[in-house]
Design goal:
By secondary structure, the chain is mostly helical. It has a domain at about 55-145. It has helices spanning about 5-30, 55-60, 65-80, 90-115, 115-145, 150; strands at about 45, 50. The chain has a two-stranded antiparallel ribbon with strand order 1-2. A hairpin with a 3-residue loop joins strand 1 and strand 2 (about 50). Helix 3 (about 65-80) packs antiparallel against helix 4 (about 90-115) and helix 4 (about 90-115) packs antiparallel against helix 5 (about 115-145). The protein is elongated and about 45 Å long.
C-alpha cells in the first residue's frame, strides 16, 4: 500500500474521530449546566425518547477500542496546540511530530483490538513508517533549533 494511500486512510480516520469529538463537544456546550446528559430512554425533545443511535457521546464510547481512539485523539490535539512561529519549516516539523505520534497511537489501538488482516497489516506499516518519520523530524529539529522567539511562539524574523 502506498504512503499516499496510508495517509488518506489515516486522514479519514482522524476526520471521523474529530467529527465524533466535535459532536460530543457541541452536545455538551448546548446543554444547561444543571441538566444531565441523559440515560437511554430518558424523555427528550418534546417528550420523545432519545433513539439509541443518538445517545450522548459518553454512552457511545464505552468499548475499550473507541475509548482508546478518543484518548489518542485528545492527546494529539492537545500536543498540536502550539503557537505558530512564522517559520514554515519549524511549524511543519513541530506540528507533524504530534500528528505522527497520534497515527502511531491509533495504529497500536488497531493492533490491540482490530481483527481485519488488511487493516492490521496497514497498522503495522503505519507504526514502522511513522517511527522513521518521527526520527527524521526530531533529527531535523535538533539540527535546526528554533530561535528563542520561535520557541515562545513569536514570529520568525524575515530578512530585509
Amino acid at each position: 500500500m502506498t504512503t499516499i494511500r496510508c495517509c488518506h486512510v489515516l486522514a479519514s480516520c482522524a476526520a471521523a474521530l474529530a467529527l465524533i469529538a466535535g459532536t460530543a463537544l457541541a452536545q455538551s456546550a448546548n446543554q444547561p449546566a444543571n441538566q444531565s446528559a441523559g440515560q437511554p430512554g430518558e424523555e427528550r425533545m418534546q417528550g420523545h425518547p432519545m433513539p439509541s443511535d443518538q445517545l450522548p457521546q459518553d454512552q457511545l464510547i464505552r468499548d475499550p477500542a473507541s475509548q482508546a481512539y478518543m484518548d489518542g485523539m485528545r492527546k494529539m490535539n492537545r500536543d498540536m496546540r502550539k503557537p505558530m512561529t512564522g517559520d514554515a519549516d519549524q511549524d511543519f516539523a513541530r506540528m507533524m511530530l504530534p500528528h505522527h505520534h497520534g497515527a502511531v497511537d491509533m495504529a497500536k489501538v488497531q493492533l490491540k483490538y482490530g481483527k481485519d488482516p488488511e487493516l492490521r497489516a496497514l497498522a503495522r506499516k503505519i507504526v514502522d513508517d511513522q517511527a522513521r518519520e518521527i526520527a527524521q523530524l526530531q533529527d531535523w529539529l535538533k539540527r535546526h533549533p528554533a530561535t528563542p522567539a520561535q520557541a515562545e511562539g513569536g514570529a520568525a524574523k524575515t530578512p530585509k
